[in-house]
Request: fold
Amino acid sequence: MAEARAARLLFVDDDAELRTVMRMRLEAAGYEVVDADSAEQALGLIDSARPQLVICDLRMPGMGGIDMLERLQHTRPGLPVIILTGFGDIPDAVRATKSGAVEFMTKPVESKDLLACIERYLGSAGAEPGDAAWEGTVVARSQQMRSLLDDASRIARTDSSVLISGPSGAGKEVVARVIHDASPRSERPFIAINCGAVPAELLESELFGHKKGAFTGAHSDHLGLFRSAAGGTVFLDEIGDMPAELQVKLLRVLQEREVRPVGETRSVPVDVRVLSATHRNLQQLVQSQGFREDLYYRLNVVQLELPPLDARREDIPALVAHQLRKLAERGAPRRVYAPEAMELLVAANWPGNVRQLFNVVEQNVALASSRVISAALVQKAIGGNSSRTMPSFDEARAEFTRNYLCQLLELADGNVSHAARLAERNRTNFYKLLSRHGIDPQNFKSQAA
Reply:
């Protein structure tokens, strides 16, 4: 088991001496510390440092601690912020807590009091919050995606409703599962339904259940998703497609925490957390009266905006490797991409986002005639989704050479010495050719199949 990483704190104060002292004390307690001398510098560090908790002075030149706190509430919802001040007056404390501070402490603060406060929100210093929730289970290399998943893990500790917005195929259900798995409800069911995929006349029954005989075809009682998810999480995907009459009933469920099955005269208490998602602009729908404003605010207590795949291209190679592993586990042949082929995937347009990328990878694996997937095969699969058309002479020659080397290794079952003899090259030069073209002979050995 890998050693847990220390939780990372961001300490913000314009007093250089205090920053040095506090860094030493916090690091001695087992935390990793990043410091900043102003709120402006701290906000610039948020994405790269990815702190699990912020400790900030109230009064600093330029932007003050509360203004910074209010900015963080929009950009990093759920990030715990402790406000420190030498001016311990009541109005400041009230304003700080109303703005979302988890604690307001007066300088000089005792180390034991500060450490106790930090531990209340993070636990012990040894474990970094968020790791267990998504590290190792969700593929994310981009800073934008990792920050969003960290936010999802922090939000999970509350029971607030969360609206996950973003384009179709970007992974909204994946984020919903991260929230569920990191929450106190993780041992209970996670049940998802696509509100746009179920006929309107059946959606109410699917969500809230029905009584036997309530309508034609209701041959027995049906619990519905809300009661089936008791103690757990209900994920309402494409909530923007929910019919208007059902929006009213969902609002009542969220307000009263009880459901009334179709055909039943009494309501039944339910205990679930509701997560929802949409690719549509719900604010515009509210303005055009296509979605209830009161329901929108019930669902949108916290909002997470999932970026399209085109905005996080650094995730593409890792996502491709993940999909190749999944396909191999399901019995598909093991495949790898030629470097030029991977470049095409990274450069392509992905209107269908991760779902479309995975479909292309699956198609490439099915159609590839050798272990190495060529750029030509990728180009055929993505069609007009890439700006690349005719390869240059050097690119065409490199692809021919790579295909030739791959065929030799196929014949030699990955044995470099044998392949070099077939090519009438010495072994050292053959290795250099393989290295230059990014080919790993291990991918051609029979045990890798």
